[in-house]
Structure formats: structure tokens, C-alpha cells
Specification:
This protein has 502 residues and is α/β, with parallel strands linked by helices. The chain folds into 2 domains: 12-254 and 469-482, Aldehyde Dehydrogenase, Chain A, domain 1; 259-441, Aldehyde Dehydrogenase, Chain A, domain 2 (3-Layer(aba) Sandwich). The chain is built from 16 helices and 22 strands. The chain has a 7-stranded mixed beta sheet, with helices on both faces. A 6-stranded mixed beta sheet has the order 9-8-7-10-11-21, sandwiched between helices. The protein has a 3-stranded antiparallel beta sheet with strand order 5-6-22. It comes from Geopseudomonas guangdongensis. Pfam families: Aldedh.
Length: 502
Amino acid sequence: MTATRTLPTVKLLIGGEFVESQTTEWRDVVNPATQEVLARVPFATVDEMNAAVASAREAFKSWRKTPIGARARILLKYQQLIRENMQELAALLSAEQGKTLPDAEGDVFRGLEVVEHAANIGSLQLGELANNVAGGVDTYTLNQPLGVCAGITPFNFPAMIPLWMFPMAIATGNTFVLKPSEQDPMVTMRLVELALEAGIPAGVLNVIHGGADAVNLLCDHPDIKAVSFVGSTRVGTHVYERASLSGKRAQCMMGAKNHAIVLPDAHKQQTLANLVGACFGAAGQRCMALSVVILVGEAQSWLPELVEKARTLKVGAGSEPGTDVGPLISRAARARVEELIGCGVAEGAELLLDGRNPQVPGYADGNFVAPTIFSGVTREMTIYREEIFGPVLCVMQAATMDEAIAIINANPNGNGTAIFTRSGAAARHFQEEIDVGQVGINVPIPVPVPIFSFTGSRASKLGDLGPYGKQVVQFYTQTKTVTARWFDEDEVGHVNTTITLK
């Protein structure tokens, strides 16, 4: 008789303790390559979520007064622990999210870079001083923490995006409540375990799990001062509006439709390799995925080679050596992508490479879609207007670079864009005329390193400050301006009824 396997349960983190939820609502965490159930994640009760916020509120009283150097040392220890556990973290991420192991390591590493940057909080949180602004008067600013902050993260980067959020919030003296994606929370929880091991005190970091009710509670709770979100446009718009109406700061990084312009003078083989990697890597499940390519002039003749290069990519489980394109996160995601491919065909786009129903030996139940390429795509087509979030590339044509720029600027989204050229003049013209927050020049996915900030724009972003970098220090702190005058002991005071300091 075979014993019934007991599935592990994902815990909540409240007040420094990993807590078994008392909820009656659970969701399975599923390996997208095999459909194996890896664990069960709870949808936390209202009492549990309120307890997490209360824990953060109480911890803020002492954490806000913790010296900057002490906070920085915890983060230095944390980055060391992440490095030491990189392979374990990548394997866990690959199993629950589907990414290839190299891509999973990249996911962790890009988050690690933010942790390293947060450890430099001593110089990032400096105020300003103006000496003797009036007779014997100095004015200076203090950048002080807000209080309890919250983060809502998506399934596609379960390591990187949580690490965009809570290390910077905590470094600046806030406490934090994190709600990771319920689809793949296991690597996030392992990162949280390492954060506690590094020395983050009880209550400074808390984790809840759940769906819409958890999101709404974080937006509404009066003790939460700021909410950071990365995910879909629909949910992000809801979060921004609801949190803002509750008087909170909010930053929401949302959907995208990222374009690249290819000029005929670009380095052909390097450009083709970059296009294929940027579109089909992570199975297209990136908010910065390159999903539209505009071939300008004679570069239109490169299309057959682009198709052949995409055709060579290996589709398989992320854990298998040599895999280029792993599975989509869920069966629902696969069905949606396949439906959109069908829309492209029905609306008249030319399907040059059809990735539906690929044969993946040993993984018949996987959520796989192989690289797919459409040509003849127009702005009216559903595959152009929708963010597909799968390994699907839309190819468009333009006679001139300015025509291509006009296409990009007419799209409502503004997350990222790129140009491939050897012409400095063309690149400069592009960066000046393009209306997109993040620009790559011969760089297909121009996500900035953490000393800068993620700067998506237009419909891809709500809120004026981006995650990580200098901007997020402003987001997680409030400026207090102090005007001070100190008198000599023997100075005689005079009554002054004006508001001017002389």
C-alpha cells in the first residue's frame, strides 16, 4: 500500500515567526513543466493579515531609531547569504516558475544587486543643509521613514521583484508587509528566511499570502503608509486608485508593449541573437520582453534569418540542460497565449512560426508554447494591442526610422524600447524623440542597474517615483525641513511680529 504524500504548506511570517495559517482557503503551487503539486499556499484570514500589519507597526517604533550602520550591516550579511545559496534559490525558482536555471540565477542576481545597493543606505539617505539662510539661522532637511509599507509582487520574477521592494524599504527605516504571488511563493519565502538569518528583527518584515482580499486590505489599512506594486495593468490601476484614495503613496509598474527598431546598418548577427533572446527568454513572461520588432528599410530582408534563429531554440523544462524556452506559468496562461495566436491568424497577420502544441519529450503535461513569429502586424490587431506575455513576436515594417518612432510613440505603453544601429547620429535622434521611459541602444532589455531607478512611463506606470535606486529612497522617506537658530547666552531678545527671519 502506497502512503499518501503530505504536501508542505507555505507559511505566513508574522512578528518574526513562521506561522501555519488557520484559513480554509488554499491554492496549489504547481510545477508548470510537469503539473506536480509542490506545496499548498494559504489565503490568509483577515485576522492574520491584520496581525502582520500590527506587528510591523509595533516594530517600527524601534527599527526607525536603529542606526543606519546597523541596518547596513544586516543587508551586507543578507547579500552574502543570497550569494551562498544562489544555486538552491535558482533550483527552487525554476521548479515553481518554470524558468531555465541560468535565467533563474539571473532573476536572483538582479535582486541581489538591489540588496547590495541598499547596503549603501548611509549615503543614499543624506539630507541637505543651508548654513546661515538668515541671521544666525540654518535650514536643513531630514529624510525620515514613513512607517509600515507594503509590497505586492508578480509571478514572473519571484526573487528579483520582492528584492526590489523590502530591502530598500527596510534600509530606509520602514517596516514591511509583503504579499508575494500565490502562484510561486516558495523562492520568495526562502529569501525571507535568509533575511531573518541575516538579522532583520522580528516584525520588521512580515509576509501574507492571498488574492484580491489581501490586495484590498493592504490598500485600505490605515496603518500602511505606502504600497509598491508590480503586475498587470488591470490590477495595478486598481491598486493605485484604491491606495491613493486611502491617502497612501503608491507606485505601480504595470503592463507593456516593448518595441525595437532595427536599422539596416546594425550588426546583423548580434542584432538577430539579441532579438531572439529578448523576446523568447523566460518564455516571454517579462514586463520588459521585446514583443515588437520594427524592421526599417533593407533590414526587412532579415526576417527569414530571424525566423530560422528562433526555430533553433530548445523548448523544455527549465531544469533540463540546454533548455532555451521553459513553460508558461499555468495552463490558463498557455490557453490565453494560444487564443491570442489564433486571433492574430484570424485578423490577417502572417504566421511565420507557429509555436502551439510543441512536442516536448518527457513533459507531455507541460504548459509549453514554442517561439512564435507573426509578420505583417498592424496597430489595429489584437496581438499588437494586447500584452501577450508569452513567446510571441510581432514583426512590423517601416520605410524610415521616423516612421518607426511614430509607431512606438503612438502606443500607450512606455516601459522599454531599443534601437539597433551603428550610427551615433541615429541613436541620438532616437533617444531624443522617443517617448518611452527606458531606452536601449543596441541593448534589447534596458533595465537599469540599481544605482539608477526603473523608469517606465505612460500607461506602464502609475506614480511618479520608480522602484529601487535614488527614486525609491524618496518614495520610502518623507522630508522634514528644520529651521534652527541658537542664541548666545547673553543675547538680548527683541520682539519680532513679522514672518521674515533677519
